[in-house]
Amino acid sequence: MESMATKTWEIAPSETSIAPPAFYLSNQLERVTGWNFATQHPKKAMEGGTTVHGATRGYLIHNVWLIDGSLYKKDAYNWLLPKTTWHPQVSIETEVDQGALYCTPMGNKYFGQWLMDDCATYALAINEGTPVTTSQPLNQHTVDYELRLGIKPTRLHNAFFRKLVIFEDVGQNRNKHLRFRNMSDKILSHLMPQPHPGVFILRGGTGELRLLQNEIQLAEHLQKYRGFRILDPMKTNVATIISVCAGAEIVVGVEGSQLIHGILVLKPGGALLTLQPPNRFVQVFKDLTDRDHQSFGFVVGTPEGKGFRIVPDEVERTLDLFPK
Questions:
Q1: CA angle 213, 314, 199 (to 5 degrees)
Q2: Distance separating alpha carbons of residues 2 and 64, to the nearest angstrom
Q3: Which of 73, 186, 213, 281 is the most buried (most CB within 10 A)?
Q4: What residue numbers bound the domain in which 162 lies?
């Protein structure tokens, strides 16, 4: 779709930074047998080094169709949602004079990507037109976060835009850092969180399966010996989630979207420890913690049944690696 733009501008320049190494035990990367959202083994990314963060850009496009959750302009298209049918009916519900699209395919699929990326891009969209996202089922967490963050989107499935602004907002530059920290400030604006050792955020069998067989035992171990709080976000509301996570020095849990609850309110200088299945290592959150001046660490489990297992001693020794 960017090739169809009649106007392109730079919102924030690209930047180069030195990413710190992750915190992990010497035998961990040898266990990794597969990875997602990356083109190569995570070893290089976990060692740190020079990182280039892309620029943030805006694109103005005229006469764009949104049909069945996908954008079309001549022979260009962008699938924002999986198609509901191969032969969608062209039924236009709304005409928009100038819209600003802030949602992404990944944000529409994963709650974590929505909160850390799409919600940050909303701050750009509100200045360029009617903030637009795709129409899809909402959960209570989404509705509550939108209310707390002041996000008021127009949700559309089929529409015609006389003008549409889209964004390239992938790079973890300082502009995006400031937008995300502003989100954190809004979430915490009515609280006075007191520091506490950490929070273990349960994943269980939700989302794409990453079943940590001894998840409850690990959480209770850290509660007993480290003073951690235990949070099951699927069983409570956003107000409780925020109150439990706010003030945590360390956020721990299986790599996945549920961790974004804790990351959003994690202060600079805090730490994130991800528990990784050996066949699905994901490093996305390291980009986030590097950008926001936080520490990132991980423990890789060993296969067991339909999931994996992690030894409490390895979690303990990895936590001891983080700066005090």
A1: 70
A2: 12
A3: 281
A4: 56-170
